């Protein structure tokens, strides 16, 4: 009777322990309990197993905070707004500090450099055709212009007593081209696009610009002309060839009128034309010419320039000549010494 009681009590206690955790498995059928000590031992073992099973079960993870909830978004927005306000305040303080600082003093150039720069700028604007900055002073105004005073192949010249020979014709290859007009303070200069060339004695020169002088710088057997156009060419090696077109009064010139129509309103401010110019229409019908070696007729008076002076003049109307005369009443360098140079002319 006592044994049955202990067996029944053991089963009730084990059932209670299993109710604490469904993972506990009781022996089925339960072995009969012999005495109270054995019952206590079984109960202690069941509790120990229940505790081990509880520890072995994974912990239920905490439910993460929803970062996209309304409260979370509002909190993050407040943080960003506060940061933006701090940045704005810092920038404002930096601006005030910068504005309150005195400007840094400009570093003055060395006296010698400043003096040289001022001198170069002065002479660039003061050489003229008359007076203190006139042609007789060019050679002493700048060491780089010494050739203007001591050169032996200077231009222009009075062309006379040339050798009459069968000269190769100048091959003109001029095309309609874009252009701009510049009043550079000494003349009106027309700058041309690429693609216009002359070829002579096996060399090809590119037409870069042409400009005007009044009266003509060249003379033919002592005779001067109202104006002259100088068409400046350069070859691949940098050698220059200038074609001179003497001007006499006559009918209007279409190309020159196109240039006058595009005169700039200010000096040193190039006017870009919208319609192309046809330099071929400047040339006279006859292509006979004089040729000699000379120089540029303005500072720095560089020598080694091939001159080609067309014998037949071109014509401009009196009104067209008068327009240039209003800008430059005189911009011609005086005649230079021939100094034994040879002049050749077409038969």
UniProtKB/TrEMBL annotation:
Region span, Disordered: 47-75
Leader sequence segment: 1-20
Reaction(s) catalysed by this chain's protein: hydrogencarbonate + H(+) = CO2 + H2O
Domain Alpha-carbonic anhydrase, first and last residues per copy: 125-347
Superkingdom of the organism of origin: Bacteria
Enzyme Commission number(s) of this protein: 4.2.1.1
Single Gene Ontology MF annotation: carbonate dehydratase activity
SMART domains according to UniProt: Carb_anhydrase
Pfam family, one: Carb_anhydrase
Keywords for this protein: Lyase, Metal-binding, Signal, Zinc
InterPro entries: Alpha_CA_prokaryot-like, CA_dom, CA_dom_sf, Carbonic_anhydrase_a-class
Top-level enzyme category: lyase
Similarity annotation: Belongs to the alpha-carbonic anhydrase family.
Name of the protein: carbonic anhydrase
């Amino acid at each position: 009777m006592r044994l049955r009681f202990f067996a029944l009590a053991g089963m009730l206690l084990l059932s209670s322990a299993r109710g604490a955790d469904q993972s506990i498995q009781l022996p089925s059928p339960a072995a009969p309990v012999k005495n109270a000590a054995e019952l206590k031992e079984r109960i202690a073992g069941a509790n120990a197993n229940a505790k081990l099973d509880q520890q072995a079960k994974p912990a239920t993870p905490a439910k993460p905070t929803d970062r996209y909830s309304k409260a979370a978004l509002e909190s993050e927005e407040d943080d960003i707004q506060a940061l933006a306000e701090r940045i704005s305040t810092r920038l404002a303080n930096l601006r005030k500090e910068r504005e309150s600082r005195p400007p840094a003093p400009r570093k003055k150039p060395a006296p010698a450099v400043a003096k040289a720069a001022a001198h170069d700028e002065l002479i660039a604007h003061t050489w003229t055709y008359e007076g203190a900055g006139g042609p007789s002073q060019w050679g002493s105004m700048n060491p780089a212009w010494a050739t203007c005073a001591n050169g032996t192949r200077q231009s222009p010249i009075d062309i006379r007593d040339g050798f009459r020979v069968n000269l190769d014709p100048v091959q003109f290859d001029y095309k309609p081209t874009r252009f701009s007009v510049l009043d550079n303070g000494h003349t009106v200069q027309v700058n041309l696009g690429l693609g216009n060339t002359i070829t002579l004695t096996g060399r090809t020169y590119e037409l870069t610009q042409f400009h005007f002088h009044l009266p003509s710088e060249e003379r033919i057997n002592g005779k001067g002309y109202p104006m002259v156009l100088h068409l400046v060419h350069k070859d691949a090696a940098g050698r220059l060839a200038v074609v001179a077109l003497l001007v006499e009064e006559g009918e209007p010139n279409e190309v020159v009128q196109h240039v006058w129509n595009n005169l700039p309103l200010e000096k040193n401010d190039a006017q870009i034309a919208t319609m192309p110019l046809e330099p071929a229409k400047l040339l006279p019908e006859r292509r006979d010419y004089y040729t000699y070696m000379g120089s540029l007729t303005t500072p720095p008076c560089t020598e080694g320039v091939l001159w080609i002076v067309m014998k037949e003049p071109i014509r401009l109307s009196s009104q067209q000549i008068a327009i240039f005369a209003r800008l430059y009443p005189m911009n011609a360098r005086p005649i230079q010494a021939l100094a034994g140079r040879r002049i050749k002319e077409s038969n």
